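Example record

Each entry pairs one chain with its bound ligand, heme-as.
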Amino acid sequence: MSVVDRPPSSSEYEPRFAGGYDLTRPEKRFVGQHLFVAIVALMIGSLMGPLQSFQFSGVDLYPYLDPIIKSYYQGLTLHGVLNALIWTTFFIVGFTAFTTMKGLGRSLSHPRLNQFGFWTMVVGLVMTAIPILTNSATVLYTFYPPLKASWAFYLGLTLVVVGSWIEGWGFFLTLRAWRKDNRGVRSPFIALGGIINAAMWQIATLGVAVEILTMLLPWSLGLIDNTDPELARTYFWFTGHPLVYFWLLPAYVSWYGMLPKQVGGKLFSDSLARLAFWMFLIVSVPVGFHHQFTDPGVPQTWKWIHALLTYSVFFPSMITAFTVIASLEYGARKNGGTGLIGWIRALPWLDPSVAAQLLAAILFMFGGIGGLTNASYSLNLVIHNTAWVPGHFHLTVASAVTLSFMGISYWLVPYLSGRQLWSPKTALVQAWTWFVGMIIFSNAMHVLGLLGAPRRTPLGDATYVPEEWNGHLLRVSIGGGILLVSVIMYGVVMVKTMRTERVAAELVPTVPIAEPIRSAQLTPVWLDTFKPWLIAAALLLLIAYGPQLVDQIWNMNLNAPGPDSTPW
Ligand code: HAS
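Structure tokens for the complex follow.
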């Protein structure tokens, strides 16, 4: 049997990669700082998740956490903010700094600007965390008014966003400098993909920036007495839906631009990869009303337009499914894989980084199908505000994204730290336990949603629940328990990796960068140019949001006072 006939065993695990520019020690440290904050946030936030899931089957551990965590909702806020907002944002910005430098083969053009952005994010994180921990910001990660938080929570989140903008400017300036020196050359995909995501983020976060600065911050400071919950929700979902693609696109950078190399193949189509990213830039934002199908203040026509646009954001994911699977198949067949689907076995399943990302993508197929269900107005009326919705987003942000980021960190952390991954076998088991735990958890949540169980509710406290819920509530707890074990394993692998001795440079994993099958130079120029796509994004946004925003702002109804005061 030749070496290519079988996947490598976990002891042979060694990520494959292209050479090129090696980041300097300070640059590696800078990226590593982002990852450090991200992983610490994930670990703390993730401890809260299983507590909620145990609560569902009546095992209430919250009283044991008093006085740190006083209620289910404080725990849920910590879970949502740390996992959905902080782990993701810090990992994404750090990873984008990495792909910008590695992809363009040069240092950041304005490193001080990026450092300033990073520390702004850190200060924002601390400001956000203090009121959550002191129970003065128990408003969940969507912070809808009239729930009111301390002003520090809103200001802190604003700083996290502003810091990520500043880092984004650093990435644009670096790309601009690279383009000046490389006229006529197509921008390397991994750098461009990350920077398109940063551009989309700058547009997307305008909604939440206006919401906080014009409404929530002055309100929490006592400068205005009331808010308009409907307008606040419109601003929030202007940002809230593209937020999910801000989470997803870095995983796509890896699936398109790195994973094919890890499986021994090439990127099937550079053009399709770029097309998918540009499509996300234009259609990610004007879909927010699909979160507001049941809001009385939004006319049906606008809900219909946004539902239609939501189906258009489905296409770049279908392009991704096609191109990534084709790239994987190309690699697997090169490794001796045969058969219509038999080639799947020839993928290097024992490489924990590859396995984590493949499992993440498989779960995403189901998360995507659930997303399309949500987007249908009629079906949404059945599942809105039920346990189905957390079922959906645990397959997407907590699987497609989080499990991919874990997989990426299995080569990235060793590369940055100059060490080897500690116990690839444990890392492999971690990826599989996440996969199994998430299937049990999410499936139970989806079913509970269809049976009418509400989301964001400590169901274990109900004195009566329909009998048919009971088995599923238990499955939620079992899934949550497996996920807890898995996240602890992830933490152990990361800590132990950082505690191993540094190894000689040639033993350190290098960066997997996939070459396209057909030279990127043959990709049309319009797939490498920001201008037409930014204009299209602005126009579509104006059409899809302009009239409704003008109407809602014009008829602003500041009628929700919220609680009298906040503790500080
Ligand atoms: Fe969603 C609610 C619609 C995608 C996250 N979503 C949420 C919430 C979150 C979230 C957090 O229309 C809750 C917000 C809250 O707290 O209220 N979502 C969609 C649609 C998509 C979608 C149409 N969502 C995501 C992603 C998320 C995310 C991605 C995070 C990262 N979502 C909704 C709607 C709601 C909603 C409504 C509101 C519900 C309500 O009423 O409250 C689409 O983008 C999905 C398209 C994706 C696909 C899957 C393509 C598959 C791929 C994998 C290929 C496989 C490979 C593996 C490569 C069609 C690309 C091969 C493996 C081998 C071994 C060969």
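Confidence is low (pLDDT under 50) at residues 1-19.
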